[in-house]
Design goal:
Number of strands: 2
Number of domains: 1
Shape: globular
Order of helices and strands: HHHHHHEHHHE
Number of helices: 9
Strand order of the largest sheet: 1-2
Oligomer: single chain
Radius of gyration: 15 Å
Structural class: mainly alpha
Strand content: under 5%
Length: 201
């Protein structure tokens, strides 16, 4: 990323989730694409804040959410980096799958009677919170760990199955691979100590 962002991750809000993560890590199973699962209560205020940053439940856009969090220049630079790594087609599909994943999770959650609270985190604070929530105890960034915390492990698994059905298993794998990379790049930009990029074999 060709930008400078200074942020104190230690001050960000996923405290309750992080505490549960530390307490339960030894009991966690591994997720489909690597990393531990999280089976505690979701941080719905963070989920609500991401949805709001992306334009709301009816018109959510990952590109819009990223721009709201870190700015257009940073998003352009990151998309350019990802395009060089993975190709234009895969990056475009990643954004489409990401949009679908959020919308599908909201649909499933709404049907289950879940109501999101008001959004209360914005900008780089939100981006940093998402990065912190994706990291396991050794600092490795895992998309699946973040998704468990955002919408519960059960809903996350349902969304992944829906992605497989709509886009195919390879698109689902790429969704996790590219999101891992983007989150790691943000961790580097935010100077998060010990951040590591997860590998998907």
């Amino acid at each position: 990323m060709r930008h400078l962002i200074t942020l104190s991750i230690a001050t960000l809000g996923f405290a309750a989730v992080a505490g549960a993560q530390s307490a339960n890590m030894d009991k966690m199973d591994m997720s489909r694409y690597g990393g531990p699962t999280y089976t505690g209560a979701p941080a719905l205020n963070v989920t609500a804040s991401l949805v709001a940053a992306g334009g709301g439940a009816e018109s959510y856009s990952t590109a819009k959410a990223l721009t709201a969090m870190v700015g257009a220049d940073t998003v352009t630079a990151e998309v350019g980096k990802l395009t060089k790594q993975f190709g234009k087609k895969r990056v475009a599909r990643w954004l489409s799958v990401f949009d679908f994943a959020v919308s599908d999770a909201l649909k499933i959650a709404t049907a289950a009677g879940v109501k999101l609270p008001d959004a209360d985190i914005t900008g780089t604070d939100l981006a940093g919170t998402l990065v912190k929530a994706s990291m396991d105890t050794d600092g490795t960034v895992y998309t699946e760990f973040l998704l468990d915390k955002a919408v519960t492990h059960k809903i996350h698994m349902m969304v992944m199955n829906d992605i497989d059905h709509k886009f195919g298993a390879k698109a689902d794998e790429d969704y996790h691979l590219l999101t891992n990379t983007a989150l790691y790049d943000l961790a580097v930009a935010f100077k998060v100590p010990g951040a590591k990029l997860a590998k998907i074999d």
